[in-house]
Design goal:
By secondary structure, the first copy, chain A, is mostly helical.
Chain lengths: 505, 505
C-alpha cells in the first residue's frame, strides 16, 4: 500500500474511533445530567462494552501496520506538517493502547462507573470508610495500567502521560514546589479583610435568571449555542460530542451567585477551546487539544483573568444589576469587584479563590502520588488529607465530605489528572500576559463588550494548533518561555494586591 | 462445544448486542430531546457507525454456529421453555441480519438521521417538494432491504416482519378492511354534537403544573420514576436504555390540556410494558416484547380504555380541578368526560379521537404499500393523501404540513410500522375485555385510585411473557380469540355511544 493511501486509511480509522468515542462520551454526559438512578448498572455495562470496542479498534495491529507504511515516507518529512503530527500522535496513542490488556480496560470502565456512584453515596453519608475499598481497587487498576504501558522513572509518569503527554513527574514536582513555596505566604498576605461584604452575593438570585444571564454572557464571549448547550449537573463539566455539539454542564446556586457564574465561565472557556478546534481535522490529532493542562488554561483564563477583571464587569455589571435588581441595587461596581476577588482560604477546592487554589492541587497531587506508590495506605487518606490542609491552608475539614470526599475524580479512575489544573493556571498566566503584550489594552475591549480580539488570538495561537506541539512546547512558542510559575505568581500579586484597593476610573 | 455452553455464550452475545443497541438508543433519545442543531451531521455518523457495528455482531457466522449447536438439543425440546424461545427468536433475527449487506444497514442509518431533519425543515416550510427525494431514497432502501431479507408474497411482508413478526400483508389487509368498512359509517354516527364545550380544555393550563400532575398520575398508574424519566421532545416516544432506565418523552401544550395529557398516558402505557419485562431475561428474546403492535396495545389500553373512563376521572378529576382551579372551576366531571371523549374527525392523526383514529392508519398503510410497490410515485403522495382523507374522513388538509408531512415515521425509514398502531388497538380491546371478565369491576378500582389489579393482570398475561409467542398468538391465548376487529368496534360503540349520554352515579 502506498504511503498516501495508508495515511488516508489511518485518518479514516482515527476519525471513526473518535466518532465511536463520542458515543461513549454521550453515555457519560447523560449519566451526569439526566440518567435515572435505576440506569446505573446498565450504564456500567454500556461503558465497559464501549471501552472494549474502542480498545479493540485502537490496538488493532492493522493500525500499527498502516503507521509503519507512512512513517519514514516523504509524507511526514516536515515534522510540523499536519500529516507528520497526526502520524506521530497516532503512534503514541497506539503504543499505549496496544500495551493495555482488554480485560483491564473493560474492568476500569466498569469500576469507574460503579465507584462514581459509591463515592456519591459515601459523600452523602459524609464517611470515607465505605468508599475506601473502591479507591483501593482504583489504585490497583492504575498500577496495573502503569505497569502495562511502561514508564521512565515512576508509575506516576505513566498516569501523567495519559492527561499531559510529554510531562514528567519530576517536572510537575518542580513546578508545584515552586508554586507551593511562594503561595503559602502569599495566601496569608493577600487574604481579604473581613470588611469586604462577601455576603451580598449570597442574597437571593433566582436560578432561571442566572441561567438566562449566564447564557447571554457565554454568547457574548463567543460560545455558539447552536453548536452547543448548557445543562445542569451535580458536577460541572464540558464535553465534545461532535464538532458542532459541545456541551457544558454547570450548577446554579440560588444563594451563591459567584459560585455558579464562575463555574459557567470556566466551562465556557473549555467550550470555546473545543468550538475553536479545526473541524476539518475532527477526529485526528491535529483537531484535538494536546493536553488537559492546556485545555484547563483556557477555562482558567476566561474564568479568572477575564471574568474577574474590572473591564469585564464594566461591561456586564450594569446588566447584572438590572437582572438582579433586588439583590444588587445597593452594591457598587467597586464593591462587587472586591467581593468576587476575595481571597479566603478554605477546605473546598471548587469554591477556592484563585490565589489559594493551587495549594488544593498540590495536596491532591502529593496524596495521589503517595497512594499510587503505596507510601500512603488508602485507609489513611482522611488523616493525611486533613493534616495537609492544616499545613498548607491552615484549615481543618469538619468531616470526610468536606475533606477527602469532596472531588469525584479519583472515583472515576482519574489518577494523574489533578496536576493538570495547576499546569492550566501556569499556562494561562503566560498566555494572557503574551496576549496583552500583543493586543494592548484587553480590559478596555472587555469594557466595550468586545472579546473577539482575545478569542481570535487564542484561536490562532492555541485552538487551531491542535496537537502540533506538546502543551509545554506550545506555551514556549507562544510566549517565549517554557512553563514556569513566575508569571502566575506575579499575576496573582498584581491582581490581588490591586483588588484590595479601590478601583480607579 | 456442549449445547448448554453454546447456549450460555449465545445469551451472553445477545445481551451484549442489546447493551450496545441501547447505546445507539441513547443517541436517538438525545437527538429527539436535547441535541443542538449543530450536532446533526456527527449524529448521523455516530448512528451509521453503531448500526455497522451492531450489524457485524448480529450477522457474525459464529452466532449461526452457536445456534446450530443448540438447535435440536434437549435444551430446546420444550418449545415453550425460555431456552427454546430464545433460540427460536435469535435464529429469526440472525437470519434477517445476515441477509442484510452492511453497506445497506449503514446507509439506512445515515439516511434516516439526515432525512429526519429534512422532514422537519420541509414541514416547517409546509411543502412536501424538498422532502420528496429523501422519501424516494428511503423507499428504494426499503425495497433493497426487502429483496435482501426475502419475503413470501410481497415486499411489504418483509417490512411488516421487522415490526410485527409473524404478521402478513394479507392478514393486515383483512383486519384493516374490517375496521374500515365499519368505521367510516361509525365515525359519522358517533360524531359529537357541537354543544359539547371542547373549548374548556383550551383554556390556560400552565405547563409546569401539567408536568407535575402528569408525573403524579404516571406514578399512581405504576410507572417508576426511579427507573425512568419523563422529558420533553417535539415528537413523543418511549425508549428503553436499560432494564432500570425507561424514558418517556412528551410534549405539553399550554392551551390544550387533553393533547399533552393523553400523549403522556400513551407513553406511560409503553413505559409500563418495558418496566414490566423480566429483568432476568434482559437482552434476550424472553425479556423483550414480541412486536410493536403488542407494545402499542399497552399504550392504547392505558390511554383510551383506562384514561378516558369515568372511573379513572372519578379518581383524578377532583385533583385536576384543584391543580387547574382557574381553568376548571366551572366544569363538572360529566362535562369533562364528554369533552375528552369527543369524536370529531380531522386531518391530524396525533390529535385524532379514538373512533376515527384507525382510519388515519388505514390511509397511511395503503399509501406506503403503494409507494413501496411503485404503484404510487412518491411525487404524487400529497394528492393521493388528500384524496384519501376526503374519502375516508371527509376532511381536506389545508397544506402538506397538515397532510402527508404530519408524521415523521417515513423520514426515519420506518416503512411497515403504521399498521402496528391499528393492530395495537385491536389487541388492546380484546385484552381489556378479558381483563374485565377476569377481574370484575375495573372502573370501580380506578375510582379508588387502584390500578394494580389491571397492571398485575397485564404483567402476568403480557409483559412477563416476553417473546414466548407471537403477538397474535399471545392475544389468542390470553383472550380465547385470534386478533379480530369485532371487539374493538363493539368497545367503541359501547363507550362512545355512552359518552354522549350523561353519566350515571
Amino acid at each position: 500500500m502506498r504511503p498516501d493511501h495508508a495515511y488516508q486509511e489511518l485518518i479514516r480509522l482515527a476519525r471513526e474511533e473518535t466518532v465511536l468515542a463520542s458515543c461513549s462520551d454521550l453515555l457519560e454526559w447523560d449519566e451526569e445530567t439526566f440518567m435515572p438512578r435505576g440506569g446505573l448498572e446498565n450504564r456500567a455495562e454500556q461503558m465497559a462494552l464501549m471501552a472494549g470496542i474502542l480498545h479493540d479498534r485502537g490496538s488493532d495491529p492493522r493500525f500499527g501496520d498502516l503507521l509503519g507504511r507512512v512513517e519514514g515516507s516523504d509524507l511526514v518529512a516536515d515534522p510540523e506538517s499536519p500529516a507528520a503530527v497526526n502520524v506521530r500522535e497516532l503512534r503514541r496513542e497506539y503504543e499505549r493502547e496496544r500495551r493495555l490488556p482488554k480485560a483491564l480496560v473493560e474492568e476500569s470502565a466498569r469500576v469507574a462507573t460503579m465507584a462514581a456512584q459509591a463515592w456519591v453515596d459515601a459523600r452523602e453519608a459524609r464517611d470515607f470508610t465505605p468508599f475506601a475499598p473502591w479507591l483501593e481497587r482504583i489504585m490497583a487498576l492504575a498500577r496495573d495500567e502503569a505497569d502495562a504501558v511502561g514508564f521512565a522513572e515512576t508509575r506516576y509518569d505513566a498516569m501523567l502521560e495519559d492527561y499531559e503527554p510529554g510531562m514528567t513527574t519530576s517536572r510537575v514536582t518542580a513546578l508545584l514546589d515552586g508554586l507551593k513555596r511562594d503561595l503559602v505566604p502569599l495566601v496569608a498576605e493577600l487574604t481579604t479583610p473581613a470588611s469586604v461584604p462577601a455576603h451580598v452575593l449570597r442574597r437571593e438570585f433566582p436560578i432561571d435568571r442566572q441561567k438566562l444571564f449566564g447564557e447571554a454572557v457565554a454568547s457574548t464571549l463567543g460560545f455558539d449555542l447552536e453548536r452547543g448547550r448548557i445543562d445542569v449537573a451535580h458536577h460541572p463539566f464540558c464535553t465534545t460530542l461532535g464538532p458542532g455539539d459541545i456541551r457544558i454542564a454547570v450548577r446554579w446556586h440560588r444563594r451563591n451567585f459567584a459560585l455558579g457564574f464562575f463555574v459557567l465561565l470556566h466551562e465556557v472557556g473549555h467550550g470555546l477551546y473545543d468550538q475553536g478546534l479545526d473541524p476539518a481535522h475532527y477526529g485526528a490529532p491535529m483537531g484535538e487539544a494536546p493536553s488537559l493542562g492546556l485545555h484547563e488554561s483556557q477555562s482558567r483564563l476566561w474564568e479568572n483573568m477575564v471574568g474577574r477583571s474590572l473591564g469585564f464587569w464594566k461591561q456586564f455589571f450594569p446588566r447584572l444589576k438590572n437582572v438582579f435588581h433586588e439583590a444588587l441595587h445597593d452594591i457598587s461596581l467597586d464593591t462587587f469587584r472586591q467581593v468576587i476577588n476575595r481571597v479566603a482560604p478554605g477546605a473546598n477546592r471548587g469554591r477556592a479563590d484563585e490565589v489559594s487554589y493551587n495549594l488544593h492541587i498540590v495536596i491532591r497531587t502529593e496524596l495521589e502520588q503517595a497512594m499510587l506508590s503505596g507510601d500512603l495506605p488508602v485507609r489513611d487518606l482522611p488523616g493525611a488529607w486533613n493534616e495537609a490542609y492544616r499545613r498548607y491552608l491552615g484549615v481543618t475539614p469538619k468531616d470526610d465530605a468536606e475533606g477527602c470526599l469532596q472531588d469525584g475524580h479519583w472515583s472515576e479512575g482519574m489518577i494523574g489528572y489533578f496536576p493538570t489544573y495547576a499546569l492550566g493556571n501556569v499556562y494561562a498566566a503566560q498566555l494572557y500576559d503574551r496576549a496583552e503584550k500583543d493586543l494592548g489594552d484587553l480590559e478596555g475591549a472587555f469594557a466595550e463588550g468586545d472579546f473577539s480580539g482575545l478569542l481570535g488570538w487564542l484561536r490562532d495561537r492555541v485552538h487551531r494548533r491542535g496537537q502540533r506541539w506538546s502543551a509545554a512546547e506550545l506555551v514556549e512558542r507562544a510566549t517565549g518561555s517554557p512553563p514556569t510559575p513566575g508569571p502566575l505568581l506575579a499575576s496573582l500579586r498584581r491582581r490581588y494586591g490591586r483588588a484590595a484597593a479601590p478601583a480607579v476610573g
